[in-house]
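Re: the request from the purification team.
They wanted to know what the chain is likely to look like in 3D before they choose a buffer screen. I agreed to run a prediction and write the result into the notebook, where they can find it.
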Amino acid sequence: MIVPGKNESNPEKVVQALSDLARGGTNALGASLVALASDVTETTVADSLCTEGALVAPIPTTQSAADARVWLKSTARGSFTWGHDASPATDRLFRYEIRRP
């Protein structure tokens, strides 16, 4: 989805962005998979879309990830940290969605 700039004067670009939103388009999805590190209890992810107070929703993509207990520990400008149970599993893979305040 292309987000028009604050000073966009072309109404077609604004209409396209609204149409994309109406069809479920978003720029809030993380660009890559996150693997929870094995045998540790937190994982920090760098993402320029994140800001303080953001809601970062984990989306498990493997059974090991679905079995993991994951919570949002903190957010900051440009990153977030998930807390999670320690596990020897190396295939706890997640995508995520960021909702900014």
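For the purification team: Residues 11-22 form the longest helix (12 residues).
Please add any questions underneath this entry.
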